Amino acid sequence: MDPPSSLKLLGSWADSHTHRVQLALKLKGLGFEYQEEDVINPSPALLLHNPVYKKVPVLLHNDRPVVESVVILQYIDETWADNPIMPADPFDRALARFWCHFAEDKLAPAVGAVFSSSGEGQKAAVDQVHDNLKLLERELRDGEFKGKRFFGGDKIGLLDIVLGCGSYWLAVFEEVMEVKLVDPGTFPAFHAWLKDFEEQNEVKETIPAIDKLLEYARGIRQMMLSLSNGTSTTAPATAGTTSAINVTVDGSSG
Amino acid sequence: MAAAEGGEVKLIGSWPSPFVLRARVALNLKGVEYEYLQEKPGPKSELLLRSNPVYKKIPVLLHHCKPVCESMIIVEYVDVVWAAATRAILPADPYERALHRFWAAYIDGKLFPSVVAIAKDEPKMAKVEAVEQLHTGIKLMEEAFERLSKGKGFFGGDAIGYLDIALGCFLGWFKVCEEVTGLKFLDEEKSPLLVGWAERFCSDEAVKDVMPENERLEEYTKLCRAFAAD
Question: Which ranges carry the GST C-terminal domain (chain A) (predicted)?
Fold first, then answer.
């Protein structure tokens, strides 16, 4: 195993994509140095190592940057063979990658829209989240993941990490926005999987406490409302707020 | 024979699609025999809807009747399943693989949408931004090519690799968009390496018989625009 100093992660404490990488490194038993980034004011290091997107997370391995959380996860898995994250079977790999794409392309933007909208727009966003969760629920109950404890099988894998690190926002947004997103009656398999995932030691060590997340989300929501009412003179620029929201839910560039 | 080792292979596709082309090039590189199922214009086939219920889009690879969706996911799948057939599509080194995957995601997330925005009749500001994004993207790809090719002919080195497929399959559409908009996407002055690479890619054995001819794509574009105008 490489000594910890060869691995450094630039991340943000409330960023789900950063959590993905932290969790993967933990599952692999890899030590790393962590540098907290201000997502509204990226550090010179972040701008240097991710000039294309200027966003977290960035994993530095022997000073070489790897960017984009799903790319990082596969890089980690291919560099350190123990405790594999990717399934062994090529079809299962393709399936895991497909649903990771779905999570980033469909689910995350829908969840983000719930948070950043109101009224009719929010209702439409909630419906969108439900439609997306129905697809996952179907796969868990009757599809390719039927009978499995986790998407990765007996252990957490790539898809669990990608979906799980972000799904905690569902409970946070339910409380802050006063909407129902994951009704255990409607999505029993997804609900059960999420609870099981969140109980894993490595996950508990990675995801911030719910109180902190609630406080953070309430703060952002307040800023957004202030900006749209034009009442705040101290709120950061809209772009900054958007970055914060994007980091919260959508994570980095992708 | 590659197909006999792997079992029955089908590809649901549509001839103008650059995403379908990616899957076809990968299969050709590996010498895989497959049945090509061309989606007809109009309502989507039952097979497509059943095989890709989430997105209902092509390409879909059916291997042992099991569907694999999303073009670059299909490319990786083909690379692993027919690993013994010919040289690998993805590089062996994990860091190089990460770079290929990163740039492929950039192409789909940033470069391709800017091309679409330019080709469509978008409002002026959106078009200006799209053109800027395109030029930035091409510049970045030129730099990526210099770094990844290491003086050889392709992003993958001596032969077509993952990133060659990701970008190369848009070359037909780049040409059509150039005709339609009068913009230059790849040019000798700003992206000389990519210009040379584009010729090599399009004339490669695995590509030349499946890349749609320019005239056919132009006709298709005219039809689409006529439909959109109606």
Answer: 89-220
Tell me, rounded to whole angstroms, the distance of Cα A23 from its chain centroid: 11
Cα–Cα distances (Å) from A8 to A3, A38, A185, B72, in that order, read: 11, 16, 42, 29
**Rounded Cα distance, A34 and A189, in Å:** 34
Residue B5 pLDDT > 80, yes or no?
no
Contact A114, A172 (CB under 8 A): no
Contacts of A97 in chain B (CB under 8 A): 70, 73, 76
For residue B225, the Cα-to-chain-centroid distance in whole angstroms is 22
Chain A residues with CB under 8 Å of B76 CB are: 93-94, 97
pTM of the model: 0.92
Residues of chain B found within 8 Å of residue A162, distances taken between Cβ atoms:
none
Confidence band of B122 (pLDDT split at 50, 70, 90): low
Query: What's the distance, CA A118 to chain centroid?
Result: 23
* B39 has a chain A CB within 8 A of its CB: no
Most A-contacting residue of B49, B54, B90, B162 (CB-CB within 10 A), to test interface: B54
Which ipTM was obtained for this model?
A: 0.93
B69–A contact, CB cutoff 8 A: yes
Residue A5: pLDDT band by 50, 70, 90 thresholds?
Answer: low
Residues B125-167: tens digit of each pLDDT: 678 888 999 999 999 999 999 999 999 999 999 999 999 999 9
The residue whose two tokens read 């690998």 is B88
A207 Cβ partners below 8 Å, 6+ apart? A19, A165, A168, A198
